[in-house]
Design a protein that fits this description.
It is globular, with a radius of gyration of 22 Å. The strands form three sheets. The protein has an eight-stranded mixed sheet, with helices on both faces. Strands 3, 4, 7, 8, 9 and 10 form a six-stranded antiparallel sheet that branches. The protein has a four-stranded antiparallel sheet with strand order 1-2-6-5. It is about 25% helix and about 25% strand. It has about 400 residues and is α/β, with parallel strands linked by helices.
Length: about 400
């Protein structure tokens, strides 16, 4: 009972403190060149991004004994000032989307001053730091598509499950049919990741308006599937992919093709994903050429760079890739692999791409500045979409 009371009190302290701070933020004199990120609830308050990309946090928590900011796994101790306000300025952050939380007297909580997103297997606060030249990730004065959440019945999970579906501008006014990208989130995230953190709609709207990508539908499903026998379907191996493979091919795709005006041939379908979703795309996409002719694999750890990864044998994982390479290549219009340049997975990814290319596999590859984070994955989708369905 005391533990429950303590947790509630700590969370209440954080909530009330941020609200008090927001009310008084108008009286603060912010550092020159600083700005409030779009992820803030109060655009005139904290956190503040400074001109060099560092972030200033301030929390009014007079009853707290210690306060920290946990920003992407790096913890910063906040310093208490007179009156009970705690503050800290982080080191410069790379552009992109950064999850963070407050730790108040040892209790990790979301920051009520920022929007919350489902990531890291929980609701987390986040800071968005824009990158120069990446206007395609922002809302522009172009025709906008629509993102809708719909529900379908899963015969694998034996329950109703959500999908988020992006339809391009003009979908509701016409009768044309569209190709489809089935896009998968990473571990600790769900179907909301690509549409919210990943800015899929903004990317597709801007690429389509500029004529850089053909109009297409993008479907984001929740791949955290419970198998009928119990346990989560998952794992970086073919067997571990079976629950979600059945979900995607037997449930998701038939639902989409019966409820949306889509082209139903393999050349009009693509599958891609990040991290865990990249592994799913590799196995399910490349071992289901009768379903998909386009596959994108972003920042997967199955090639190495994460705990549990072992020597990866391309031929045993995708039979025929290295021994019947010409036939493999004919099956796919686009096979695209990416990784962040500061991601621990990068050298393993480069090495496996080299093995593929040395063996004659036609694979596109690119890397982008950044670690295992959303700015890399946005750029991956941005590039992948421009190759598709042409």
């Amino acid at each position: 009972m005391r533990t429950t009371t303590f947790l509630f009190a700590a969370l209440l302290t954080a909530v009330c403190s941020i609200e008090t701070l927001a009310q008084g933020a108008i009286r603060d004199v912010f550092p020159k060149g600083s700005y409030s990120p779009v992820t803030n609830i109060n655009r005139g308050g904290y956190p503040r991004v400074l001109a060099d990309g560092s972030v200033m946090f301030r929390v009014n928590a007079p009853q707290a004994q210690s306060v920290q900011v946990d920003l992407c796994g790096t913890k910063y101790d906040m310093v208490r000032a007179e009156g009970g306000a705690w503050a800290v300025t982080t080191k410069a952050q790379v552009p992109g989307f950064h999850y963070y939380s407050l730790i108040v007297d040892g209790v990790s909580v979301a920051d009520p001053a920022s929007r919350s997103f489902y990531g890291c297997s929980r609701w987390s606060s986040a800071i968005e730091i824009p990158e120069t030249g990446m206007d395609d990730f922002e809302v522009q004065d172009v025709a906008h598509g629509d993102v809708r959440t719909v529900w379908y019945y899963s015969k694998v999970d034996e329950t109703w499950r959500p999908l988020m579906v992006y339809t391009p501008a003009g979908y509701d006014e016409g009768d044309r049919t569209y190709p489809v990208v089935y896009i998968q989130h990473g571990g600790g995230e769900d179907h909301r990741g690509w549409m919210e953190q990943g800015r899929t709609a903004q990317i597709m709207d801007n690429l389509t308006a500029a004529g850089k990508a053909v109009p297409m539908i993008v479907v984001s499903s929740n791949s955290n599937v419970l198998s009928r026998s119990g346990g989560m379907g998952g794992g970086y191996n073919w067997q571990g992919m079976q629950s979600f493979r059945n979900e995607l091919i037997d449930n998701v795709i038939p639902f989409v093709e019966s409820h949306y005006r889509v082209k139903k041939d393999r050349k009009s379908r693509a599958m891609c994903g990040l991290s865990m979703g990249g592994g799913q795309s590799f196995y399910i996409g490349l071992r289901s050429p009768e379903v998909f002719a386009n596959v994108g694999v972003f920042s997967t750890g199955m090639f190495g760079g994460i705990r549990g990864a072992s020597e990866f044998n391309l031929e045993s994982e995708v039979p025929g890739m290295m021994t019947n390479t010409e036939a493999f290549n004919r099956q796919f219009d686009v096979f695209f692999v990416t990784c962040g340049e500061q991601d621990p997975r990068i050298e393993y990814t480069r090495n496996i791409v080299k093995k593929m290319r040395d063996g004659g596999v036609e694979v596109k590859f690119n890397s982008y500045p950044g670690d295992h984070e959303w700015q890399v994955w946005r750029k991956s989708l941005h590039e992948f979409a421009q190759y598709l369905f042409k």
